[in-house]
Design brief:
alpha/beta, 10 strands, 41% helix
Length: 234
């Protein structure tokens, strides 16, 4: 393994605030603000996806909006969602063992990257909050917004490989590269979208059951293994 790409929320970042996952609560609050009700199980199935994509999809399917109205409202909801997350960044904690796992990998020469479905402002704020990049434990941080597309697309993974010098800067980020050895990449996350991101390119893909998606759901997505948490990775 030369590069490891980790998800943030519920994988390396504990987003439980007052007994509720901050991401799900922020989604629900955002939709509630425009009088759109989205069932909890539908929201939970969106975990791991780019947040703007979630708002577009659910405003159309649950809110009955179409065309430009979807895009305009999705942007408004993303701003509401981002503001709520930023207000709570200081209350977030790392998932137990995350720092130890990063240190374990860095000691073995692995390039450690974080890839998130959070908006860019939130992703950077969280990375700064934990000090992982400043301390040298995390080499690169990206998100779907910055990379060009979120999970299950390969954009974030390819951006990380470019940052590590394992792919040339101008290489395509939107397609699987036939001559690249993706088995040197480790992908770790807590959602079926994370599993798809890794499996779609042939990376070693590990799921962790520390989020809101069940072990059975994760196993059905086909990772190499499902671990209780990221702390078990070493």
């Amino acid at each position: 393994i030369t590069l490891a790409l980790f998800d943030m929320a519920a994988t390396t970042v504990d987003d439980m605030i007052d007994g509720c996952p901050l991401v799900l609560q922020s989604f629900a609050d955002s939709f509630h603000a425009v009088h759109v009700t989205v069932p909890g199980d539908v929201l939970n199935a969106q975990r791991g996806k780019d947040k703007m994509e979630v708002f577009r999809t659910l405003l159309a399917s649950q809110g009955g909006l179409q065309g430009e109205a979807v895009e305009h409202m999705a942007q408004c909801l993303l701003e509401h969602f981002t503001a709520q997350l930023l207000r709570n960044v200081a209350r977030l904690r790392e998932m137990p063992g995350a720092t130890a796992v990063f240190r374990f990998l860095k000691q073995r020469g692995v390039f450690v990257a974080l890839g998130s479905g959070f908006p860019l402002d939130v992703t950077q704020a969280i990375a700064d909050h934990f000090g992982w990049t400043a301390s040298g434990l995390v080499d690169y941080v990206t998100c779907g917004e910055a990379a060009g597309a979120g999970r299950p697309h390969p954009h974030m993974l390819h951006r990380a490989l470019q940052a590590a010098g394992l792919l040339p800067p101008g290489s395509p980020v939107d397609q699987v590269l036939p001559d690249f050895a993706y088995d040197q990449v480790l992908k770790v996350g807590d959602t079926v979208q994370d599993v798809a991101e890794g499996r779609n390119v042939g990376a070693l893909t590990i799921a962790v059951a520390s989020g809101t998606q069940s072990v059975k759901t994760l196993e059905e997505a086909g990772p190499a293994a499902v671990l209780p948490s990221v702390a078990e990775l070493p």
